[in-house]
Amino acid sequence: MVYLDHAAATPVDSAVLAAMQPYFIDKFYNPSATYMAAQQVRADLERARADVARQLGARTSEIIFTAGGTESDNLAITGVMQQFPGANVVVTAIEHDAVLEPARQYMHATASVDERGMIDVANLESRINDKTVLVSIMYANNEVGTVQPIRQIAQLLQKKRAERRKNGNTLPLYLHTDACQAANYLDLHVSRLGVDLMTLNGGKIYGPKQSGVLYASSHVQLQPLVRGGGQERDLRSGTENVAACVGFAKALELAQARRTDEAQRLGTLQSLAFQRITEKLPGAVINGSQKYRLPNNIHITLPGQDNERLLIELDGRDILAAAGSACSASDEEPSHVLRAMGVSDDAAQSSLRITTGRETTEADIRTLVDVLDQLVKQ
What we know:
The protein has two domains: 2-8 and 260-377, Aspartate Aminotransferase, domain 1, CATH 3.90.1150; 14-255, Type I PLP-dependent aspartate aminotransferase-like (Major domain) (Aspartate Aminotransferase, domain 2), CATH 3.40.640. The chain is of the alpha/beta class. The protein has helices at residues 14-20, 36-56, 69-81, 97-103, 121-127, 150-167, 190-193, 242-280, 307-316, 336-340, 345-348, 362-377, and strands at residues 2-3, 63-66, 88-92, 107-111, 132-136, 174-178, 197-201, 212-216, 285-286, 297-301, 319-320, 351-355.
């Protein structure tokens, strides 16, 4: 089987599984209990938190364990916005629905992107006003792989903050980034990026599904979505899933340790794919930025083709790919990401998202393009 949908899910790394296993049977204790065995589990949980903080260049107290990217995004957006009635949030038109949906519950503005899926920073600046308290920009897009200039955006917000101080405006202005797709290949150091909040998802980095983190800088005030037991600094009540937290920490450590080598290897496969697609499928259109792009993302339009039919045919040949975000796979509407990039609905419904991963080989890429060539000719 050739698996080419790593943006949707990744297999759990064997080292991650080994790190998690003790917490299912031998170390099953509730970390809030007072006896020694439970307190040892509490120590393991806090060690995992410290490991995550180290990877991000953050303080341990700034790491909130969650049940994945969607919860982290919701906590970031709602946790900030519900404190400031009348304030607004700015997002881009290509954010994941986990950002767009909570943002729609508040006053919001949407910054545009160009045909590559790159944010228009000047347009973003025009969307920020004196009542903006949060800007949420995806680090790397989950559909077309375009990588956004987060550091440049952070510098823009720094300038805006200075203007506010000068004018006596005391409202905060935070920068949140959804980095779920970026963690395998890009630098996550929060100070270098200049972000105040960052979302990460274990299921995208060879860790367990339903595991994730929200980094929230110590100067960011949040209100919880879930109240009750007071876990995670009162921001995420409920008995901690220690196995998932430990697994996430291990997965993030491995992803960041391997990111340079893996980005280079997958970038070579990506170049091969683009070359062979151009040769064998001359009508194909490559979507997204070719320069500022995740190395594992190959997003193409095959004009006149039905992507649903192509995916079924590929599946029948043991090649697993996607048309877009797995979270909206059952939605018959064309991708909002492609629409925002100016892609027509017809072209969007002729598009495929191919995302490679650790087990992908050159032979897999050659097989994919050969089969697509056969299917298009049919």
